[in-house]
């Protein structure tokens, strides 16, 4: 088994590929003035958990999931099979075409870069459209465990640094919500169960992936109040003359 195959074995059939809750989606929708039948695109939709929440919350909407990895796109398709207002496409989220009233992106914008991704999506937004995305932040004074948790994420900043990246892309933030605590606990409870189920008989590659995941969980447990995503609501700034 290769490292990529081992990583896939651990995360296959997970409800989510990262922390988050339906309440996060519902909060974002409550802050955005959407038309009666909006077009909403979930960029990097993973196995489709947020697509389900969006479909339930927006029964008259056109909900689309875009996922680059074939197995995740298939999982999202299966998760949303019972909804007539959802379509899932395997593709590149950098190539989303408009007009979109909302682009939702949970924990995946880092693949493009915050500023780069927002600039790319600007032309895909309908007039009045918005982007909702979650991005890691690390506030000053966080303990070492929280800093170690994000060692492999060089773009990490505090919230003011994230604001600067959004501003550099020509957007403004009109809402923000912390994602920490219970959202992470639920995600790691499922991941811990996956690790336990795969541990017996794991070969070298899989054991290494399981060990890395256990270390990640251990670091989070040491600083659960400081490891967080910030859910950001952003829209293009109006140009004044």
Describe the structure.
This protein is of the alpha/beta class. It has a domain at 17-143 and 155-180 and 226-236: Vaccinia Virus protein VP39 (Rossmann fold), CATH 3.40.50. Helices cover 41% and strands 22% of the residues. The chain has a seven-stranded mixed β-sheet, with helices on both faces. α5 (114-122) links the parallel β4 (100-105) and β5. The N and C termini lie far apart (59 Å).
Give keywords.
241 residues; 22% strand; 7 strands; alpha/beta; Rossmann fold; 7-stranded mixed beta sheet
**What is the element string, with H for helices and E for strands?**
HHEHEHEEHEHHEHHE
CATH class descriptor of the domain at 17-143 and 155-180 and 226-236: Alpha Beta
Instruction: Detail the poorly predicted runs.
Output: none
Quaternary arrangement of the chains shown? single chain
Q: What's the arrangement of strands in the largest beta sheet?
A: 3-2-1-4-5-7-6
Form type: globular
Radius of gyration: 18 Å
| Helicity range | 40-55%
* SS summary, helix count: 9
Number of strands: 7
Determine the strand fraction and express it as a percent band.
15-25%
Q: Look up the CATH topology of the domain at 17-143 and 155-180 and 226-236.
A: Rossmann fold
Class based on secondary structure composition and strand pairing: alpha/beta
First-residue to last-residue Cα separation:
59 Å
CATH architecture of the domain at 17-143 and 155-180 and 226-236: 3-Layer(aba) Sandwich
* Fourth-level CATH superfamily of the domain at 17-143 and 155-180 and 226-236: Vaccinia Virus protein VP39
Largest sheet: 7 strands, mixed
Q: Taking all residues together, what is the mean pLDDT?
A: 95
């Amino acid at each position: 088994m290769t490292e990529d195959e081992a990583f896939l074995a651990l995360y296959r059939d997970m409800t989510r590929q990262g922390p988050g809750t339906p309440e996060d989606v519902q909060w974002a929708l409550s802050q955005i003035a959407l038309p009666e039948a909006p077009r909403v695109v979930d960029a990097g939709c993973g196995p489709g958990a947020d697509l389900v929440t969006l479909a339930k919350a927006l029964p008259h909407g056109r909900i689309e999931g875009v996922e680059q990895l074939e197995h995740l796109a298939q999982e999202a398709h299966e998760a949303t099979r019972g909804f007539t207002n959802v379509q899932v496409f395997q593709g590149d989220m950098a190539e989303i075409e408009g007009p979109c009233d909302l682009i939702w992106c949970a924990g995946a914008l880092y693949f493009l870069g915050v500023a780069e991704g927002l600039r790319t999506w600007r032309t895909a937004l309908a007039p009045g459209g918005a982007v909702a995305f979650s991005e890691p932040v690390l506030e000053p004074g966080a303990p070492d465990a929280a800093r170690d948790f994000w060692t492999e994420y060089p773009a990490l900043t505090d919230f003011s640094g994230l604001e600067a990246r959004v501003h550099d892309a020509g957007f403004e933030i009109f809402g923000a919500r912390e994602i920490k605590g219970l959202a992470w606990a639920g995600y790691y409870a499922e991941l811990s169960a996956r690790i336990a189920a795969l541990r017996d008989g794991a070969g070298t590659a899989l054991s290494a992936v399981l060990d890395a995941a256990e270390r990640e969980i251990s670091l989070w447990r040491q600083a659960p109040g400081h490891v967080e995503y910030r859910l950001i609501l952003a829209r293009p700034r109006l140009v004044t003359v």
